[in-house]
Protein backbone atom coordinates (compact mmCIF):
# COMPACT_ATOMS: atom_id res chain seq x y z
CA UNK A 1 0.00 0.00 0.00
CA UNK A 2 2.97 2.33 0.50
CA UNK A 3 4.33 1.54 -2.96
CA UNK A 4 4.89 4.72 -5.01
CA UNK A 5 6.39 3.04 -8.08
CA UNK A 6 5.41 4.82 -11.28
CA UNK A 7 4.55 8.11 -9.57
CA UNK A 8 6.37 11.41 -9.90
CA UNK A 9 6.86 13.40 -6.70
CA UNK A 10 7.96 17.04 -6.54
CA UNK A 11 9.63 18.09 -3.29
CA UNK A 12 10.29 21.81 -2.82
CA UNK A 13 13.03 22.70 -0.36
CA UNK A 14 15.78 20.06 -0.24
CA UNK A 15 18.16 21.02 2.54
CA UNK A 16 20.27 18.24 4.09
CA UNK A 17 17.81 18.21 6.98
CA UNK A 18 14.03 17.67 6.62
CA UNK A 19 13.66 18.13 2.86
CA UNK A 20 16.34 15.59 2.06
CA UNK A 21 14.90 13.09 4.52
CA UNK A 22 11.50 13.26 2.88
CA UNK A 23 12.86 13.12 -0.67
CA UNK A 24 14.99 10.07 0.13
CA UNK A 25 12.09 8.14 1.64
CA UNK A 26 9.85 8.94 -1.34
CA UNK A 27 12.61 7.65 -3.60
CA UNK A 28 12.99 4.51 -1.50
CA UNK A 29 9.25 3.89 -1.91
CA UNK A 30 9.67 3.89 -5.69
CA UNK A 31 8.70 7.43 -6.69
CA UNK A 32 10.67 9.40 -9.23
CA UNK A 33 11.60 12.41 -7.11
CA UNK A 34 12.03 15.91 -8.50
CA UNK A 35 14.27 17.73 -6.02
CA UNK A 36 13.62 21.46 -6.16
CA UNK A 37 15.64 24.08 -4.34
CA UNK A 38 16.65 27.65 -4.97
CA UNK A 39 20.22 26.42 -4.45
CA UNK A 40 21.01 24.00 -7.29
CA UNK A 41 23.82 22.46 -5.23
CA UNK A 42 21.37 21.27 -2.59
CA UNK A 43 18.96 19.90 -5.18
CA UNK A 44 21.82 18.10 -6.89
CA UNK A 45 23.09 16.47 -3.70
CA UNK A 46 19.68 15.07 -2.76
CA UNK A 47 19.03 13.76 -6.25
CA UNK A 48 22.47 12.12 -6.35
CA UNK A 49 21.80 10.40 -3.02
CA UNK A 50 18.50 9.02 -4.31
CA UNK A 51 20.16 7.69 -7.46
CA UNK A 52 23.00 6.18 -5.43
CA UNK A 53 20.40 4.18 -3.49
CA UNK A 54 18.92 2.80 -6.70
CA UNK A 55 16.14 5.36 -7.16
CA UNK A 56 15.27 7.90 -9.81
CA UNK A 57 15.59 11.64 -9.30
CA UNK A 58 15.79 14.93 -11.16
CA UNK A 59 17.41 18.02 -9.59
CA UNK A 60 15.99 21.41 -10.57
CA UNK A 61 16.43 24.96 -9.30
CA UNK A 62 13.86 27.73 -9.13
CA UNK A 63 12.76 30.86 -7.28
CA UNK A 64 9.45 29.68 -5.81
CA UNK A 65 8.04 33.21 -5.80
CA UNK A 66 8.48 33.65 -9.55
CA UNK A 67 5.31 32.49 -11.31
CA UNK A 68 6.93 32.07 -14.70
CA UNK A 69 9.92 30.19 -13.25
CA UNK A 70 7.61 27.78 -11.42
CA UNK A 71 5.66 27.18 -14.62
CA UNK A 72 8.81 26.61 -16.65
CA UNK A 73 10.17 24.19 -14.05
CA UNK A 74 7.00 22.12 -14.03
CA UNK A 75 6.98 22.09 -17.85
CA UNK A 76 10.46 20.59 -17.64
CA UNK A 77 9.30 18.03 -15.09
CA UNK A 78 6.44 16.92 -17.29
CA UNK A 79 8.58 16.63 -20.41
CA UNK A 80 11.43 14.76 -18.71
CA UNK A 81 9.83 12.46 -16.13
CA UNK A 82 6.06 12.84 -16.45
CA UNK A 83 3.10 14.44 -14.70
CA UNK A 84 3.60 14.88 -10.94
CA UNK A 85 0.99 13.06 -8.84
CA UNK A 86 2.64 13.98 -5.52
CA UNK A 87 3.65 17.44 -4.32
CA UNK A 88 5.47 18.08 -1.04
CA UNK A 89 5.46 21.80 -0.24
CA UNK A 90 8.53 22.41 1.90
CA UNK A 91 9.79 25.73 0.61
CA UNK A 92 10.79 27.94 3.54
CA UNK A 93 12.66 31.09 4.47
CA UNK A 94 14.00 31.60 7.97
CA UNK A 95 14.16 35.07 9.50
CA UNK A 96 13.93 34.77 13.26
CA UNK A 97 12.69 38.19 14.30
CA UNK A 98 9.92 39.62 16.39
CA UNK A 99 7.47 42.26 15.25
CA UNK A 100 9.52 45.14 16.65
CA UNK A 101 12.63 44.22 14.66
CA UNK A 102 11.16 42.99 11.40
CA UNK A 103 10.83 45.44 8.52
CA UNK A 104 7.90 45.38 6.12
CA UNK A 105 10.16 44.26 3.27
CA UNK A 106 11.47 41.34 5.35
CA UNK A 107 7.93 40.37 6.34
CA UNK A 108 6.81 40.41 2.73
CA UNK A 109 9.83 38.44 1.56
CA UNK A 110 9.37 35.67 4.13
CA UNK A 111 5.65 35.30 3.55
CA UNK A 112 6.15 35.41 -0.22
CA UNK A 113 8.46 32.40 -0.13
CA UNK A 114 6.37 30.33 2.26
CA UNK A 115 2.85 31.29 1.14
CA UNK A 116 3.20 32.45 -2.47
CA UNK A 117 5.68 29.68 -3.29
CA UNK A 118 3.38 27.02 -1.88
CA UNK A 119 0.41 28.53 -3.71
CA UNK A 120 2.18 28.67 -7.07
CA UNK A 121 3.45 25.09 -7.00
CA UNK A 122 0.15 23.73 -5.75
CA UNK A 123 -2.00 25.61 -8.26
CA UNK A 124 0.02 24.42 -11.23
CA UNK A 125 0.29 20.78 -10.11
CA UNK A 126 -3.40 20.62 -9.24
CA UNK A 127 -4.52 22.20 -12.52
CA UNK A 128 -2.40 19.76 -14.51
CA UNK A 129 -3.90 16.78 -12.65
CA UNK A 130 -7.47 18.03 -13.04
CA UNK A 131 -6.94 18.66 -16.75
CA UNK A 132 -6.28 14.94 -17.35
CA UNK A 133 -8.59 13.60 -14.64
CA UNK A 134 -5.86 12.07 -12.51
CA UNK A 135 -5.83 11.77 -8.71
CA UNK A 136 -3.02 13.18 -6.62
CA UNK A 137 -1.68 14.01 -3.18
CA UNK A 138 -0.53 17.39 -1.88
CA UNK A 139 1.44 17.43 1.38
CA UNK A 140 2.36 20.76 2.98
CA UNK A 141 5.00 20.91 5.68
CA UNK A 142 4.08 22.88 8.76
CA UNK A 143 5.83 23.15 12.14
CA UNK A 144 4.86 23.01 15.77
CA UNK A 145 5.04 26.80 15.35
CA UNK A 146 1.81 26.50 13.33
CA UNK A 147 0.02 25.33 16.47
CA UNK A 148 1.78 27.17 19.29
CA UNK A 149 2.88 30.76 19.70
CA UNK A 150 6.65 31.17 19.44
CA UNK A 151 7.98 34.58 20.50
CA UNK A 152 10.27 36.58 18.25
CA UNK A 153 9.52 34.51 15.14
CA UNK A 154 6.50 36.36 13.80
CA UNK A 155 6.86 35.73 10.07
CA UNK A 156 7.52 32.01 10.34
CA UNK A 157 4.68 31.42 12.81
CA UNK A 158 2.26 33.44 10.70
CA UNK A 159 3.11 31.61 7.49
CA UNK A 160 3.01 28.14 9.03
CA UNK A 161 -0.28 28.89 10.80
CA UNK A 162 -1.73 30.12 7.53
CA UNK A 163 -0.67 26.95 5.75
CA UNK A 164 -2.61 24.89 8.28
CA UNK A 165 -5.93 26.35 7.17
CA UNK A 166 -4.71 26.57 3.57
CA UNK A 167 -4.52 22.77 3.68
CA UNK A 168 -8.07 22.43 5.01
CA UNK A 169 -9.42 24.73 2.32
CA UNK A 170 -7.60 22.80 -0.40
CA UNK A 171 -8.85 19.51 0.97
CA UNK A 172 -12.54 20.35 0.82
CA UNK A 173 -12.21 22.04 -2.58
CA UNK A 174 -10.27 19.26 -4.26
CA UNK A 175 -11.74 16.13 -2.64
CA UNK A 176 -14.45 15.78 -5.34
CA UNK A 177 -11.66 15.86 -7.93
CA UNK A 178 -9.70 13.01 -6.38
CA UNK A 179 -6.86 15.13 -5.02
CA UNK A 180 -6.07 14.65 -1.35
CA UNK A 181 -4.47 17.48 0.62
CA UNK A 182 -2.88 17.04 4.03
CA UNK A 183 -0.25 18.74 6.14
CA UNK A 184 2.62 17.24 8.10
CA UNK A 185 3.94 18.84 11.28
CA UNK A 186 7.61 18.32 12.14
CA UNK A 187 9.12 19.61 15.37
CA UNK A 188 12.64 20.18 16.63
CA UNK A 189 14.57 17.50 14.78
CA UNK A 190 17.38 15.17 15.78
CA UNK A 191 20.58 16.37 14.14
CA UNK A 192 22.17 12.98 13.41
CA UNK A 193 21.01 12.55 9.82
CA UNK A 194 21.44 16.24 9.05
CA UNK A 195 25.00 16.34 10.37
CA UNK A 196 25.99 13.17 8.51
CA UNK A 197 24.58 14.44 5.22
CA UNK A 198 26.18 17.85 5.65
CA UNK A 199 29.59 16.22 6.16
CA UNK A 200 29.09 14.01 3.12
CA UNK A 201 27.97 16.92 0.96
CA UNK A 202 30.62 19.31 2.24
CA UNK A 203 28.08 21.92 3.34
CA UNK A 204 27.50 23.57 6.75
CA UNK A 205 25.73 21.42 9.31
CA UNK A 206 24.22 22.13 12.72
CA UNK A 207 26.33 24.31 15.01
CA UNK A 208 27.30 23.44 18.56
CA UNK A 209 24.74 25.81 20.08
CA UNK A 210 21.92 24.20 18.11
CA UNK A 211 23.09 20.71 19.01
CA UNK A 212 23.03 21.64 22.70
CA UNK A 213 19.59 23.22 22.34
CA UNK A 214 18.18 20.13 20.65
CA UNK A 215 19.69 17.86 23.27
CA UNK A 216 17.68 19.78 25.84
CA UNK A 217 14.58 19.57 23.64
CA UNK A 218 14.90 15.80 23.40
CA UNK A 219 14.73 15.57 27.19
CA UNK A 220 11.55 17.65 27.22
CA UNK A 221 9.34 15.81 24.70
CA UNK A 222 7.16 12.93 25.93
CA UNK A 223 8.96 10.22 23.95
CA UNK A 224 12.39 11.30 25.11
CA UNK A 225 13.71 11.42 21.55
CA UNK A 226 13.30 13.87 18.72
CA UNK A 227 12.10 12.73 15.28
CA UNK A 228 14.62 12.30 12.49
CA UNK A 229 14.14 13.53 8.91
CA UNK A 230 13.49 9.93 7.84
CA UNK A 231 10.62 9.76 10.35
CA UNK A 232 9.00 12.63 8.49
CA UNK A 233 9.81 10.95 5.20
CA UNK A 234 8.01 7.75 6.12
CA UNK A 235 4.99 9.78 7.20
CA UNK A 236 5.02 11.58 3.85
CA UNK A 237 5.17 8.25 2.01
CA UNK A 238 2.11 7.11 3.93
CA UNK A 239 0.13 10.28 3.12
CA UNK A 240 1.09 10.05 -0.55
CA UNK A 241 0.25 6.36 -0.86
CA UNK A 242 -2.90 4.33 -1.41
CA UNK A 243 -2.80 3.43 2.28
CA UNK A 244 -4.15 6.96 2.89
CA UNK A 245 -6.82 7.03 0.18
CA UNK A 246 -9.52 7.96 2.72
CA UNK A 247 -7.42 10.64 4.40
CA UNK A 248 -7.66 14.30 3.44
CA UNK A 249 -7.69 17.56 5.34
CA UNK A 250 -5.73 16.29 8.32
CA UNK A 251 -2.51 17.43 9.95
CA UNK A 252 -0.23 14.51 10.75
CA UNK A 253 1.95 15.54 13.67
CA UNK A 254 5.27 13.73 13.76
CA UNK A 255 6.44 15.61 16.82
CA UNK A 256 7.29 13.10 19.56
CA UNK A 257 4.17 14.22 21.41
CA UNK A 258 5.32 17.81 21.83
CA UNK A 259 2.03 19.48 20.85
CA UNK A 260 0.06 17.07 23.04
CA UNK A 261 2.03 18.07 26.11
CA UNK A 262 0.26 20.35 28.57
CA UNK A 263 2.38 23.41 29.23
CA UNK A 264 2.14 23.27 33.03
CA UNK A 265 4.24 20.82 34.96
CA UNK A 266 4.60 20.15 38.64
CA UNK A 267 7.97 20.83 40.27
CA UNK A 268 10.17 17.76 40.01
CA UNK A 269 7.91 15.95 37.56
CA UNK A 270 9.57 13.74 34.97
CA UNK A 271 7.63 14.31 31.75
CA UNK A 272 8.50 10.97 30.24
CA UNK A 273 7.78 8.79 33.25
CA UNK A 274 5.02 10.87 34.84
CA UNK A 275 6.83 10.39 38.14
CA UNK A 276 7.97 12.89 40.72
CA UNK A 277 11.57 13.01 41.77
Automatic annotation (TrEMBL):
<keyword id="KW-0560">Oxidoreductase</keyword>
<comment type="similarity">
    <text>Belongs to the short-chain dehydrogenases/reductases (SDR) family.</text>
</comment>
<dbReference type="InterPro" id="IPR002347">
    <property type="entry name" value="SDR_fam"/>
</dbReference>
<dbReference type="InterPro" id="IPR020904">
    <property type="entry name" value="Sc_DH/Rdtase_CS"/>
</dbReference>
<protein>
    <submittedName>
        <fullName>D-threitol dehydrogenase</fullName>
    </submittedName>
</protein>
<dbReference type="GO" id="GO:0016491">
    <property type="term" value="F:oxidoreductase activity"/>
</dbReference>
<dbReference type="Pfam" id="PF13561">
    <property type="entry name" value="adh_short_C2"/>
</dbReference>
<dbReference type="InterPro" id="IPR050259">
    <property type="entry name" value="SDR"/>
</dbReference>
<dbReference type="InterPro" id="IPR036291">
    <property type="entry name" value="NAD(P)-bd_dom_sf"/>
</dbReference>
<dbReference type="GO" id="GO:0032787">
    <property type="term" value="P:monocarboxylic acid metabolic process"/>
</dbReference>
Amino acid sequence: MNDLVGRVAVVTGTSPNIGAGIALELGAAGATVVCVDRDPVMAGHVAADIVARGGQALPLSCDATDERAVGDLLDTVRSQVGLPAILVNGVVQYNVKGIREMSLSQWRSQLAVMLDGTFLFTRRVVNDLVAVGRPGSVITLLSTAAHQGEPNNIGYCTAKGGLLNYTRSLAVELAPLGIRCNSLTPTATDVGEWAARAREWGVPGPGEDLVAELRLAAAQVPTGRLPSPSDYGRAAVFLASDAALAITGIDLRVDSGSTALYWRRKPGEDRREGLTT
